Amino acid sequence: MRLKAMPPLRLMIAVGLMLAPLVVALAAAVHSEALSSGVAALVGLLPLLGAGLALRLHQREAAAVADYAAQLSHSGSPTPPTGAPVALGGLIAAVARLHRVAARRTESVQAQLDANDSILDALPSPLLVMDAARQVTRANLMARDLFGDKVLGRDLAATLRTPAVLEAVDAVLGGGATRVFEFTLPVPVERTFEAQVKPFQRTLPAADPLADPVADSANDGLSVPAPVPQTIRMAILTLHDVTAARRSEQMRADFIANASHELRTPLSSLLGFIETLRGPARDDPEAQDRFLAIMHDQASRMSRLVNDLLSLSRIELDEHMLPNGRVDVLDELENVIAALELKAAERRIRLILDAPDSVPRVAGDDDQLTQVFQNLVSNAIKYTREDSDVTVQVTVVDGAAVGFAGLPASGRRGGRGGARMVAVAVRDQGEGIARTHLPRLTERFYRVDAARSRAMGGTGLGLAIVKHIVNRHRGRLTIESEVGVGSAFTVYLPATDESLGAADSAARRKAG
Ligand SMILES: Nc1ncnc2c1ncn2[C@@H]1O[C@H](COP(=O)(O)OP(=O)(O)OP(=O)(O)O)[C@@H](O)[C@H]1O
Ligand SMILES: [Mg+2]
Fold first, then answer.
1. CA of 211 to the centre of ligand 1 (A)
2. What is the pLDDT of residues 206-215, one digit of tens each?
3. Pocket around ligand 1: residues whose beta carbon is below 6 Å from it?
4. pLDDT of res. 86
5. Which pLDDT does position 1 carry in this prediction?
């Protein structure tokens, strides 16, 4: 803003008013002939010129102060006008002080805004703020992580095209009440969000008229109109990721559906046979024998299923508690192999244990580890080719080499170096499993060929049980398979520092 020079007419009137009493006095003196009119004109003209000059100078200095104030509001630190007279010097100091106070206030408002940004960024859920034109004016860290930095300053529709979200935001911006709903983002990975769109009124200070060059030119620099604040309606969108909750609900529902389905099949077959035994087969002892054998199979299947389900829920219950026993894996494996040898022989399968003389004990529950090895070896027997080898290989490996970190202290050798793991790999020479099935094999009831597994008496819970037991032991299960070649299921278990001496293992082998 520039202070304009006073128009000449105004200047003359101002000077005329200042000198009016002198003119009246001089006129009276001329009238009473105390002064000649020439002298009176001279006496009147000199103060007139002096006052005009003084007013002009004063006005120039006032303009310099106004300039200084304008520069302060734009650039922040101009040099104050030099050679200012005492009266305006005070004014310059007052303007500079006023500016310093305003600058401090701005800084503190800025600090408050920065703190608000940090608080928004600390929120665990994405949050976006849209203005009346649906442009995103704020996005917290989680929102920027989800949608990228380019979300800011653009229409929400440019980033998030879900119609339900856009509709809700439009409705809220149009005066509607808060909306809560769920939607799914299909990419990059499918995620389900619970969204809340809330209205929010924001009062904006009106544009500063002095900052507007058009308004400024119409302004005489003395009267500044007060800015009129403006209220605008905005919308706040918060997203809450409910993918895990929805997935677990779905899994629970699937689980109940699967379990009931698995039980219903043998149950309806049992009911059918009971009907037949009471009716058409009442007097047919040969058919009765046949049917009773099938009924026995079906009942055993139901009992196995119920046992597996109970075992799974028990394991899940104490999955968070580390087992406190010490288990000799070789002992367990020898027992499991001995128990399954007969079943293997039926398909002319050779069970081979390939292990060092001794391995460190693992922290574990022996019954549960027996269940793990039994499941894996019996799967290998069931799904491998007839007349082939199933090898159970035991090795001691460095945990770090197989991607292990953060193991309990008992899994570390001498407190430093890599954690030792006992690896048990069960390898078969079966037809293998296609890659697409691998990630889902440990899901409950998941079977590559359900009919075949069911025909072999499988419930599809074996590997789910294995996975939960291995988790409880803070171990890991890996599955490698090649179609047409065979599969390898490897269980890694953290070793303790207790090593079996050679004498122990020799004694054990002798006893075995
Ligand atoms: N060694 C293997 N070779 C090929 N496929 C396998 C092997 N082990 C498991 N599978 C596949 O994984 C599926 C799931 O195995 P899991 O042990 O959980 O169930 P199951 O053997 O069918 O039944 P259960 O073990 O409860 O009696 C099996 O149905 C089978 O399709
Ligand atoms: Mg199995």
1. 77
2. 666 555 554 5
3. 308, 375, 379-380, 383, 428, 430, 433, 441, 446-449, 453, 458-463, 487
4. 58
5. 47
Domain 123-219+228-241 has CATH 3.60.20.10: no
Residue 76 one-letter amino acid:
G
pLDDT, position 503: 46
The architecture (CATH level 2) of 246-317 comes to: Orthogonal Bundle (1.10)
Dihedrals φ, ψ of 309, to 5°? -65, -45
Domain with CATH 1.10.287.130 in the chain: 246-317
Strands 389-398 and 350-354 come out as parallel
CA–centroid distance, residue 360 to ligand 1 (Å): 29
Beta strand extents in 163-208 (DSSP E only): 179-185, 191-204
Structural contact between residues 36 and 53, judged by C-beta atoms closer than 8 angstroms: no
In the chain, which residues fall in CATH 3.30.565.10? Answer: 326-511
Kindly report, residue by residue over 230-284, the tens digit of the pLDDT. Answer: 888 999 999 999 999 998 898 889 888 988 988 998 899 999 999 999 998 899 9
Question: Which fold would CATH assign to domain 326-511?
Answer: Heat Shock Protein 90 (3.30.565)
Which residues of the chain form CATH 3.30.450.20?
123-219+228-241
Beta-bridged to residue 231, according to DSSP, are 203
Which pLDDT does position 416 carry in this prediction? 44
CA of 48 to the centre of ligand 1 (A): 115
**Atom of ligand 1 lying closest to residue 463 CA:** 18
Pair type for strands 486-494 and 420-427: antiparallel
Which residues have a Cβ under 8 Å from the Cβ of 154 and sit 6 or more positions away?
135, 136
Spatial separation of the C-alpha atoms in residues 265 and 261, rounded to whole Å:
6
Which ligand 1 atom is the nearest neighbour of the CA of 464? 18
Token pair for residue 41?
A: 């004109």
Q: Which of the ligands is closest to the CA of residue 380?
A: 1
Rounded distance between C-alpha atoms, residue 159 and residue 173, angstroms: 18
What tokens appear for 258 in the block?
């699967």
The rounded distance, in Å, linking the Cα atoms of 203 and 268 is: 70
Contact 333, 426 (CB under 8 A): no
Closest ligand (CA of 467): 1
Residue 131 CB burial class (10 angstroms; 0-12, 13-18, ≥19): middle
Segments of the chain with pLDDT less than 50: 1, 214, 221, 406-417, 501-503, 510-512
| Pairing of β 230-241 and β 191-204 | antiparallel
The pick from 447, 469, 485 for probing ligand 1's pocket by mutation, whose C-beta has the most ligand atoms within 8 angstroms, reads 447
Q: Are 227 and 208 in contact (CB under 8 A)?
A: yes
Instruction: Give the Cβ contact number of residue 415 at 10 Å.
Output: 7
Ligand 1 centre and the CA of 442: distance in Å? 9
